[in-house]
Specification:
alpha+beta; OB fold (Dihydrolipoamide Acetyltransferase, E2P); Dihydrolipoamide Transferase; 4 domains; six-stranded mixed sheet; four-stranded antiparallel sheet; 10 helices; 28 strands; globular
Length: 540
Amino acid sequence: MAIKVTMPRLSDTMTEGTVASWLKKVGDKISEGDILAEIETDKATMEFESFNEGTLLHIGIPEGETAPVDSLLAIIGNEGEDISALLSGGAAPVAAPAAAEAKKEETAAPAAAKPAASLPAGVIVVTMPRLSDTMTEGTVATWLKKVGDAVAEGDILAEIETDKATMEFESFNEGTLLYIGIQEGNTAPVDSLLAIIGPAGTDISGIADNYIAGGASQAAPAAEETKAAPATTSAPVAQEAAADGGRIIASPLAKKIASDKGIQLNQVKGSGENGRIVKSDIENFSPAAAPQAAAAPAKTEAAAAPKVFVPAGEVFTEEIKNSQMRKIIAKRLAESLFTAPHYNLVIEVTMDDAMKSRATINSVPDTKVSFNDMVIKACALALKKHPKINSQWKEDVIIINHHVNIGVAVAVEDGLVVPVLKFTDAMSLSQIGASVRDLAGRAKNKKLGPAEMEGSTFTVSNLGMFGITEFNSIINQPNSAILSVGAIVEKPVVKNGQIVVGNTMMLSLACDHRTIDGATGAQFLQTLKQYIENPVTMLA
């Protein structure tokens, strides 16, 4: 009997998902545990396994298309089984208009390609894809094809910047690139006209004009490609200037690895399409094998010198286009600051005993605990004693969380993410240390799953490693509080009436006054101070 498979809810905040790729096609045999597709959320791309056996009879959401949770994703059943009743009587794929039942047969085409009945044979309109469920617009970082180039299925057309990352966008069609609707560096809403692909020599002027006239795209026609970019337009993220003034094309991953290793991209010969530098080129790069272009960096640097050494009295500004991730951070932090009445409580903690305890703990083989790990453990225990700090504000109720999930703020290249330690109070110091290192490492490589960044009840932000002694953070809603941790400072302190050298650390607690009164926050900080100053009490 045929079974309907719907778009899964891969996280508790997910409302829709995008099919990044299908790993099975209609007619393929499916076994329980097989990977059916890769599905993108606003946090990550995740593999979706089949829980059923049979033959894949129908695909309801094509690659690149976004649909709400519980939309018809696929139908699995016996080979040759009649599924017309399911298609007509069941829930229609939400990705296509409900009235357009006849368009179900077009599901083999990706959502980004929208052929119409009026289009010439073989011509496909490609639109700005929705690469995450929170994406409303995208920026074309780099075009890897130009008008007139032959395009094969699977070729990388462009690199598109979303609110999470810069992602490669593949073509799902074959033909010639006839038109580019969104120029490099420009931003356009989802479903705007991105490109037109079709047989070489096809006249598509009317298609582009009609699409733009319909309000679907604000992009300039491809004929304007030759125009110079405005001075305010930032350079594409995956391009750099070559020594001879040409353009270097590299994938985002290759560029990141090169940056980490200190490799100049103009020294690397690309093995990818159109000389594109890919990951393997960076990993296999040897300075001795660098092309002769590497001998000319001095000339390039000299040419760029006026941008660095600005003459006295000259006004010099630079515009950097906001990434989608930066826009989202700005929006959410502004909402937090302007909706939650913040106040801050500051306390100074003596760290002498904590420093001795940490040295003793780390003397155990294969054990590594940081001061931040000790602060996180102390917070978890203090939250159990002061559950009002571990709360959330709702219009009609205050939710008190009796489980403790601590979010740890981690700085990444494009902004800030907050991976979460689930049930932190039940973890040992060494478990906390290992988990934080693992989560932070994967956060910086954008390898965290959505579930690993959700469900926090309290947040810790530490800038002590940068020498910051005291600061105030903005609350990570829906949490009611966030702790800011400063650096350990050696200074004169008074002990038993004597001035001696001691080590102290400043802690600042930002609270939402709707849920946490000043006295409640102060009592939490007192308990936290006792745990940190007497680490042995955390082992009880």
